[in-house]
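quick one before i forget lol
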Amino acid sequence: MGRVKISKLFISGYVALATVIAVYALPTIDSDYLIGTVDPGSPADPVQEFARLQQLVEMYNLGVSSFTLTQTSPHKSWDHVAYTGSSRNANVPVPNLPDVSEYGSQNGANGNPAFEFDLGLGSDYTMVKWGDVAAYYWTRGLDGKVDFQNDIVRNKNSGSLLGGSHVVQFNRIPDGGITLILLGLGVTCLALLRRRLS
């Protein structure tokens, strides 16, 4: 009788653990969140990355699917830059997307076609550089850790999916002063406690 109870307890614990793991699976950001890509996405420069996203947001809001610009750069020269907008993917809202107002910090990726990344409190837009292609994603409403998965950018010769080199968030969500409020409450409580004890 005792072994049956222990076995049932063990199985119940295992099922509960599997349920917790399933509930806490990280959201996956892939082409369902894609606003568009820029190829080539060079140079990896804050001003250029900001301007590319602004261009894609304008394209998306106007319903333009793709165009090519002739452009040169002192760092790298090329004849054409291809901007390809998405076709209203599942997790990207219908126009109008908000303006791009802030360039966030640049963070490294691990060089793999899939990697975990912490969005912090979140942002409207996130760029991942897959090889030399900059992919811009709609990430409003997502926060904390997510999995980025490249399911769109392939090596032109081998066909293998390219890895991420860096991530940039745009229009980051501020903490709204919660840290200062909590700090103020803590100091107030300490002052009250001190008065009460003296």
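fyi DSSP finds three helices and ten strands in the chain.
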